[in-house]
């Protein structure tokens, strides 16, 4: 593939999970996001993706992902096309492979939010252009990039720090685990029985990277960041009642926050359910950086699209 703006040859890459990128590439994208954000704040145009088209495919609902990708590509000089299962032939059983072959002949880059990671991989295997994971049942890598950017802005490097994940072993926590392995920090996890990380997904991992706790208060002890997510992720709605019973003691409250370091941050990918996975006072409190975290989806994804389309600049 030739990048027309610089005539530089770029090897086509996808971003299907965080570990598709090396540590050095993640750090590049983070630094680039800081540069792009700074220009955005000064109202300086940054339009390296002039005339490029992003197709967004949503098979699940979204607010932040939709707006940040669409605004991001416009701000870089390109445009976006939004497709959902309801208003495309995907909802009428057109195979994902055929959809990939067609769409990727017409656009420059694709972002997909879907169910199984396998479905995303099938799309990517038949795509001529880079594909970005906008959330699957297994991973949410764009969100974790934004979270790490937010941590860096508030506290500096995340290397050798401690992060507590309070709640479900879901797309967010498994992506945090990949981040801990790549960037070198320790992830503390506490979830009720039946909702802990699966052995076959984590393998033999060092306790420098992952430590699991029965008590969420113990998991928060001495950490630099406390983070959580909804008890029921999209696609698991039929488990809602049983999950509400199981997770009732896994609500991040001010007592849990007080067992973390005094300067610990609180993050949540949003949308949040106040009074369930987090109390209103923590979500709205001085340690919470959830609004910066949401905004950073815009900046990090601009850096990500630029990197996938143009390589390192
Ligand atoms: N955090 C996140 O991905 O939000 P949306 O579901 O609104 O896109
Ligand atoms: N784990 C949540 C994240 C939403 C952004 C879900 O998959 O619904």
From TrEMBL:
It catalyses: carbamoyl phosphate + L-ornithine = L-citrulline + phosphate + H(+). Gene3D superfamilies: Aspartate/ornithine carbamoyltransferase. The keyword Lyase does not apply. Carbamoyl phosphate binds at residues 62-65, 89, 113, 140-143, 269-270, 297. Keywords: Cytoplasm, Transferase. One of its GO terms (biological process) is citrulline biosynthetic process. SUPFAM superfamilies: Aspartate/ornithine carbamoyltransferase. Pathway: Amino-acid biosynthesis; L-arginine biosynthesis; L-arginine from L-ornithine and carbamoyl phosphate: step 1/3. This is Ornithine carbamoyltransferase. It comes from Candidatus Kinetoplastidibacterium crithidiae TCC036E.
């Amino acid at each position: 593939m030739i990048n027309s703006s610089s005539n530089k040859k770029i090897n086509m890459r996808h971003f299907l999970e965080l570990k598709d990128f090396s540590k050095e590439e993640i750090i590049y994208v983070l630094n680039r996001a800081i540069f792009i954000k700074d220009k955005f704040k000064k109202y300086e145009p940054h339009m390296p993706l002039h005339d490029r088209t992003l197709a967004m495919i949503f098979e699940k609902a979204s607010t932040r992902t939709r707006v940040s990708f669409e605004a991001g590509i416009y701000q870089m000089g390109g445009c976006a096309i939004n497709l959902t299962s309801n208003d495309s032939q995907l909802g009428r059983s057109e195979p994902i492979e055929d959809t990939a072959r067609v769409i990727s002949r017409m656009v420059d880059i694709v972002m997909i939010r879907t169910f199984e990671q396998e479905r995303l991989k099938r799309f990517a295997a038949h795509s001529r252009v880079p594909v970005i994971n906008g959330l699957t049942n297994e991973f949410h890598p764009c969100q974790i990039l934004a979270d790490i950017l937010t941590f860096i802005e508030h506290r500096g490097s995340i290397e050798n720090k401690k992060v507590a994940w309070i709640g479900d072993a879901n797309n967010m926590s498994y992506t945090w685990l990949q981040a801990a392995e790549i960037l070198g920090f320790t992830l503390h996890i506490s979830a009720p029985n039946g909702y802990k990380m699966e052995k076959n997904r984590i393998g033999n991992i060092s306790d420098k990277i992952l430590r699991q706790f029965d008590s969420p208060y113990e998991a928060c002890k001495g950490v630099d960041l406390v983070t959580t997510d909804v008890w029921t992720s999209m696609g698991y709605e039929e488990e809602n009642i049983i999950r509400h019973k199981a997770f009732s003691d896994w609500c991040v409250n001010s007592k849990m926050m007080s067992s973390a370091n005094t300067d610990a941050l609180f993050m949540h990918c949003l949308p949040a359910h106040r009074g369930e996975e987090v109390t209103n006072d923590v979500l709205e409190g001085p340690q919470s950086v959830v609004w910066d975290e949401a905004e950073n989806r815009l900046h990090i994804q601009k850096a990500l699209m630029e990197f996938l389309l143009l390589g390192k600049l």
